[in-house]
Amino acid sequence: MNAKLLLLAAAVAGLVFTGCGEDGADGAPGMDGMNGADGADGTNGTNGADGADGADGADGADGADGADGMDGADGAPGTGGFGTGSLEDFPLSGMVQATLQSDDPSATLYQTVKDLVALENAGTDVPGFPLPQAGADRVRTLAGVDLSLVAAHLDPMTFDPQGPLWGSNNDFIAIIGDGWDGGDGWNAGENPYFTGSSDRALMWSNFEYISGFPNSFQLDTPPGGQFEPIALDAIARGVLPSGDISQPAYWTQDNVNIAIQLWQENIGGGLFTVVRDPSTGRYDIDRTANNIRFDSTSNTLTTITGINTQTNRAGGVAVADDGTPLAANVAPGINGDCSGGVSPWGTIWSAEENVQFNLGEVEDCWSSRNVFDGAGSICEAGSNITWDVSPNGEFTRSTEDRGSRPRDMYGYLVEIDPTAGGSDVPYDSATGVGHMKMGSFGRARWENVTFFANAGGNLVSGFPIVIYAGNDRRGGRIYKWVSNSPWMDTMDRAATRRLLEDGTLYVAHFADLANSDDATTGALGGVTLADGTLPTQVAPGNGQWIELSTTSTDVAPNAGAGMLPAGTTVGAALTDVNYNGIGGFATDDDVLMGLFTAAAKVGVRELNRPEDVEFNFVNGNLYVAFTNHGRPNALFDDGTLDPRSRSDKEMDNIRSDGDGVIMAFREANPGNPGVSDTFTFWVAFDGSTDPGVFNAADPDNLLIDPDGGVWFGTDGNFGPGRTDSAYYLEESTTGPGTAWRVLSGPSDSEATGPTLSPDGRALFINVQHPGEDSDVFSAWPGNQF
What we know:
Blueprint: E1 94-100, H1 109-121, E2 140-141, E3 145-152, E4 170-177, E5 200-207, H2 227-236, H3 253-265, E6 268-276, E7 283-285, E8 292-294, E9 301-305, H4 310-313, E10 330-332, E11 337-342, E12 348-352, H5 356-359, E13 413-416, E14 436-438, E15 446-451, E16 464-471, E17 478-486, H6 493-498, E18 503-509, E19 541-547, H7 570-575, H8 588-593, H9 595-601, E20 610-615, E21 622-626, H10 646-652, E22 661-667, E23 678-686, E24 699-704, E25 710-714, E26 725-730, E27 738-744, E28 750-756, E29 762-768
Parallel strand pairs: 9-14
Antiparallel strand pairs: 1-3, 1-29, 2-27, 4-5, 5-6, 6-7, 6-8, 9-10, 11-12, 12-13, 13-14, 15-16, 16-17, 17-18, 18-19, 19-23, 20-21, 21-22, 22-23, 24-25, 25-26, 26-27, 28-29
């Protein structure tokens, strides 16, 4: 079917929702006991006088019925059902599949959308395209596209009712088709991008957090929020005892301990196999496959490479949930997993973002409004910084704090090895097998990760491995990591992964970007150039990469500003205990532990929350979604520290970009970015909440299709007449491009993780936190599937 068929009727109806089942029915009451035996006959009356016998007396009344038999035992709860209510009583996150309906086996959803764009641009009005904006509590998409549910929170991932369950608030999605590597392990020239089978594939989804859930439990206090369906499901499965979870008395220490374990089990990620139904094109989880949950318990183990964590420098190690010490640099669990990526060698990467909410903040010298906590803090000038990495008592499984987590073991890019066979296999450098946290990239609020590849999606022999990621916080920066040794096409996966243990880290300094709003020039901090104009592809801004290490010879961007000495190198600035009013970094490990503080110390230009970073190996550009920023800067325009209070900062050093942009930037050497020192950048999409067919705001996750087309989802657009949606971006060289709406989500949800099937016929997207705001109604997915 070509694009014209999208003018036909709406998509086929969705699947009936049977995710976790309805209430398990009570067993049928036992049958009434049998009636008691008839009472004995009354005595015969006395004989009359001799002669004819008198008539027999009437029978006595029947005896009373015997007591009823005991009721039969209740039947077992239905799998995944609740003790009371059902899934339809709660809004739940889930993964949706949007599939092109076409008899043409070569037709793809992404090309069909581009054909519709071409028709519209040629003057042909295509009804229903782009998808009209609305505030429905359903997923909506184009005519000719079928919607179905792949999985939802608390769905079983196997046929074992006590087995792994689909987690909470799914975010990033990865899909790798079977056979992409020829079945004999990865070799040069093979890549997992849009290759392999579309009939059977390996998938991954992150599970980021639980909506409305507190960071710690209190005795005699119902937890509330999205934990309610988790608790009810646990009661149905016999994990929690029966009782009224809304009553404080229910939450004894024993039940709190179980609840905290459930909390840890509901976040992390899931690795699972899907199969496609040939008759409908819909994907389902193969529940007979080795589907594995990765979570925040010590059932998930990773090795932190490329850094000696402060925990281990102090002679300590982390412990498993039962109190057993783990090996040095082995971390129990993953946490705060937001977005991620897939490497050219076929491993799946999950980015640990807001771990500070669960585990405590390592860089505990900045407020959420970028106010620097200097005097008396760990970052106070005059001495070296010693990060506080001690467990903070949160996220524990008992009052004894067994299972608490050292803070410096979280906030990394995590490489998941699909060949490891389980979640409890920490990376072993000798074999190259197991799960790794990439310490040489450092700690931050990582949102995403992406990899340089050539036009065929492969690593380039003789060139280093190059990886990019963004620190998703207000003022967070973009970083580039370059392996210290080149990759060679004779290397297998194990040898390739060993290269990740040793590399050089760079931070992007957007030198021409406006730092703060300026009413005189019209500059918008983090969006425009300093003169107030938007950078375009034909008139871009300029930036440079700054090596971020204690031995870096690059000149600090703020050298010579204010009272800072001119010509100061980054290495000298970082190790100086007074430079820019911030304490010193004694070692590179200390730098890697606090990337935000290190970048601020040397004056790197702040950015507007880089939500996602994606390398486009078709055109060689890097795309970044800057979602928004409406708070003060940490630094003045010249890169020196703004030590003032929040109220003073808000007078003249603030950013007011509430709508976000997508920027593209291009390395000076796009074919070998490992040797690039500079780059150019421009605005590829400019967000807006104003009414309009093509307006969207707060771009979040990005997708690059096989032809190099850019797609994005949004987070934060829910309001009158609109919801968060997924878009195709039509780019322009002379200004921001045009966003064509393809799919929209239910109320108060985020459209996350857009991913295409290997053959491009299906778009997968996660519906995260529907109805998260307690004042917003949502019945999704029960009202749709």
